[in-house]
Amino acid sequence: MNIEKIHHTAIICSNYEKSKHFYVNILGLSIISEIYREERESYKLDLAVGEHGQIELFSFPHPPKRPSYPEAAGLRHLAFQVTDIEATVCELKEHGVSVEPIRIDSLTGKQFTFFQDPDGLPLELYEA
């Protein structure tokens, strides 16, 4: 087996326009492609995360709510690496995004914090 990297993370949103605005206009991710799949009544928006990562943002009619919190079994959160966490937090707050206080990772000494997307999905900023 030769797994090289994570290619993408897929997210199903409850309000496509609201989530598209959040990921593109607030987080500043670039659109790779956007299609509407009429047979599925679903948008698929591919977003670039840096030079190598991607987020696939999907919309489906009436998706069920997320049944778990970050401490439940399964995917805990999605982390974005940033070079200046304080500046990034300020930008998020300017857009009305609630951000937890910045903490220090006791193992690495690096700064990190958490915030949520429009559907309450846990997102992390981690300063490299």
From TrEMBL:
Residues annotated as signal peptide: none
InterPro entries membership: Fosfomycin_Res_Enzymes, Glyas_Bleomycin-R_OHBP_Dase, Glyas_Fos-R_dOase_dom, VOC_core, YwkD-like_dom
Keyword terms of this UniProt record: Metal-binding
Species of provenance: Ectobacillus funiculus
Lineage, opening ranks: Bacteria, Bacillati, Bacillota, Bacilli, Bacillales
Superkingdom to which the source organism belongs: Bacteria
Protein name, per record: VOC family protein
VOC domain: residues covered: 5-128
